[in-house]
From TrEMBL:
It comes from Motiliproteus coralliicola. The gene is lpdA. It catalyses: N(6)-[(R)-dihydrolipoyl]-L-lysyl-[protein] + NAD(+) = N(6)-[(R)-lipoyl]-L-lysyl-[protein] + NADH + H(+). The lineage of its organism: Bacteria, Pseudomonadati, Pseudomonadota, Gammaproteobacteria, Oceanospirillales. This is Dihydrolipoyl dehydrogenase. GO terms for cellular component: cytoplasm. Its EC number is 1.8.1.4.
Length: 479
């Protein structure tokens, strides 16, 4: 007789494991299917984000930022260090230890909450059944009152740059480089490309980023993208736009990368090449022919606003469905779906999902850009405040960037916030909370912010929306 569960979750990434824990907390008999195992056959939980994405990349970014500070910035503070070296293998080892601790932590949470882990590859069958193919090729079919698909995404590969074991790498391979390359090529100037490029640029690598799009960070507010591009150029990143890679050739321990841009056919020679052109939903082998679950024209699972698929009782969350491919979006969808299954009235606000790029300075945003709002015909007022005018930022020697706040000209409601600066990823939460509660620019204007803090830049940007900024000259009012 097959096992039966109230909820079966497919995938133990940030969407799946959170959904499973929440469902179990609500008293639902819950199982989570995960196929990833380590070289010892032990289940690896946490998905791409925890193992080869968000967490390990931030560990490397933090290590290299500290090295860069010691190497380049300590002198201005009066700190002398002598010769500064970095042990790249030790840096990668630290990253691996952090990942292991967190994956073990998720396993502990499953145990504490009573989630049953089913090791193997999950497939949704008709009649709300899930087939689990184990690593010894045996199969088990379990029954589920409800199914949550959280299979995640995988890197997009491109024919001109087929991956190799150690020279042409995707994001996973990029996290395991153990020696500083002299020359690094990156295909794609998106989040992953810029973060990985920054890691090695700080260690002295000559980094060239090839981006096929004509505009830099076209999904960001133009002011944010312009400031970031200027800063990255100053840091030494060679970002080439409108550059389409046409082919690669491995010659010994080097890669010749051929591309076309406004100047015609070009090529560069690098020691490592990272392919970071985006991710696609992972649905291979996920849906049985009789599952009834529908995909859209881009290969995503079709869902409504509460992540219901075309089959009653079957939900899908995270990177396999529409919306930004972000861990926190997947997690919140997982909580929403678990609550709905339990009978709660749950809804998620897709207008308030923050995005962050963890370079230095960081880029962070929530809501709409000024360009989007103007295209929609919305009359807006904009307030900007530079960190160069922030006393706390000056004291920290971290004055690049600004806060840009956008409010509706008629209602004063905050419609978007865009930050480039040293702590943008932390600051953006303040704007997210304000927008979640439907705040106006005046609400932030009347809020007392501690001094001296970089958070005051949000306060000043709100004041600047009405030309009331105190610590920077206000723009002249339009007549």
């Amino acid at each position: 007789m097959s096992q039966k569960f109230d909820v079966v979750v497919i995938g133990a990434g940030p969407g799946g494991y959170v959904a499973a824990i929440r469902a179990a907390q609500l008293g639902l008999k819950t199982a989570c299917v995960e196929k990833w195992v380590d070289d010892k056959g032990t289940a690896v939980l946490g998905g791409t984000c925890l193992n080869v994405g968000c967490i390990p990349s931030k560990a490397l970014l933090d290590s290299t930022h500290k090295y860069h500070m010691a190497h380049e910035e300590f002198k201005v503070h009066g700190i002398s260090t002598g010769k500064v070296d970095i042990d790249v293998a030790a840096m990668v080892g630290r990253k691996d230890k952090i990942v292991k601790n967190l994956t073990m932590g998720v396993a502990g949470l499953f145990k504490a909450n009573g989630v049953t882990l089913l090791q193997g590859t999950g497939k949704v069958l008709g009649g709300k059944k899930v087939e689990v193919t184990k690593h010894d090729a045996s199969t088990e079919v379990v029954d589920a009152e409800n199914i949550i698909i959280a299979a995640g995404s995988v890197p997009v590969n491109i024919p001109p740059a087929p991956l190799t074991d150690d020279l042409i790498l995707d994001n996973e391979g990029a996290l395991n480089i153990t020696e500083t390359p002299k020359r690094l090529g990156v295909i794609g100037a998106g989040v992953i490309g810029l973060e990985m490029g920054s890691v090695w640029n700080r260690l002295g690598t000559e980094v060239t980023v090839l981006e096929a799009m004509e505009d830099f960070l076209p999904f960001c507010d133009k002011d944010l993208a312009k400031e970031a591009q200027k800063t990255f150029k100053k840091q030494g990143l060679d970002i080439r736009l409108n550059a389409r890679v046409t082919g690669t050739e491995v010659k010994g321990k080097e890669v010749v990368v051929k591309f076309t841009d406004a100047k015609g056919e070009q090529e560069i020679v690098v020691d490592k090449l990272i392919v970071a052109v985006g991710r696609r939903p992972y649905t291979e082998g996920l849906l049985g022919a009789d599952s009834g679950v529908e995909l859209d024209e881009r290969g995503f699972i079709s869902v409504d606003g509460q992540c219901r698929t075309s089959v009653p009782g079957v939900f899908a969350i995270g990177d396999v469905v529409r919306g930004p491919m972000l861990a926190h979006k997947a997690s919140e969808e997982g909580i929403m779906v678990a609550d709905i299954i339990h009978g709660h009235k749950a809804q998620m606000n897709y207008d308030c999902i923050p995005g962050i790029i963890y370079t230095h300075p960081e880029l962070a945003w929530v809501g709409k850009t000024e360009q989007q709002l103007k295209a929609e015909g919305v009359k807006v007022k904009v307030g900007k405040f530079p960190f160069a005018a922030s006393g706390r930022a000056m004291a920290s020697q971290d004055t690049d960037g600004f806060v840009k706040l956008i409010a509706d000209e008629e209602t004063d409601r905050i419609l978007g916030c865009h930050i480039v600066g040293g702590q943008a990823g932390e600051l953006i939460a303040q704007a997210v909370i304000a927008m979640e509660f439907g705040s106006s620019a005046e609400d932030l204007q009347l809020t007392v912010f501690a001094h001296p803090t970089v958070s005051e830049a949000i306060h000043e940007a709100a004041l600047a929306c009405d030309n009331h900024a105190i610590h920077v000259a206000n723009r002249k009012k339009r007549k």
